[in-house]
Structures are given as C-alpha cells and as structure tokens.
Design a protein that fits this description.
about 130 residues, globular, five-stranded antiparallel sheet, alpha+beta
C-alpha cells in the first residue's frame, strides 16, 4: 500500500479531517499526516498507546468475522473529535480523526457519514469512486 498517496486522498476528501494515521495490526505507526495548523490533543506516547488499544480491539472484532462478516469501520466519538478506524488490507489499519466542530460552511457540511463513505471508497481501490 502506498501510504502517502492514500493519506493525501483521505485528507483532501474533507476539510474536517484533522489527521490520518496508518498503523500495522499491532498499532505501530507506519505513516501519518496532519492538517496544517491543527494541534494534537494527545502526546506522541498517548497517541501510540491509543492506537495499540484500537488495534487490539480490531483484532478482537476480527475473531467474530466468520459469524458476522468482516469489519468495515469503527467509530469512537469524543467531545473534541471523532476517530474512525478502517481496515486496509490484511495487515494495516487507517485511523482518521475529524473535528467535532465542523469547519466547513458549505451546504454539505461534510460530517461523519460523508467522511466514512469517502474513506471506504478510497480504500476500496475503485478509481470510479471518490
């Protein structure tokens, strides 16, 4: 997977996205991209620990896939941000963080559902989807 190209497409898909991180299934960061001017709420150590917990949760969900199907994404919503986790192939996870207070003022407003749809389309590898 070409991490930089995928992360750039994700970041460009919505102004509300604060950052995008690709990690392996152990939660080890392989690549990251942050929007200019965005301040992280968590330290590097806190971010790493959070990603490890999320990766562990994703592995636990994966054990249920024979019965309920493969996971498509998970959402954790907080007062200040929303973090979405997406599988990227068999060995990676993509974490997308977006602001809880929208920065877009156009008619579409972006929003969680739009970001989820955009990221799923980007990760699908289908060039006909945005």
């Amino acid at each position: 997977m070409e991490f930089d190209a995928v992360m750039k497409r994700i970041m460009d898909s919505d102004d509300n996205i604060r950052n995008c991180i690709v990690a392996d299934t152990e939660g080890e960061i392989k690549a990251s991209m942050h929007r200019d001017g965005v301040r992280n709420y968590l330290s590097e150590e806190e971010t790493a620990a959070s990603l490890k917990r999320a990766a562990s949760s994703w592995k636990a969900r994966k054990q249920l896939s024979p019965k309920i199907g493969r996971g498509q994404y998970a959402v954790a919503a907080f007062e200040k941000l929303t973090r979405m986790t997406f599988p990227a192939g068999e060995n990676h996870l993509v974490f997308v963080s977006m602001a809880s207070n929208p920065v877009r003022d156009d008619i579409y407003q972006g929003g969680r559902e739009d970001v989820i749809e955009h990221v799923l389309n980007i990760l699908s590898g289908d060039p006909t989807k945005n």
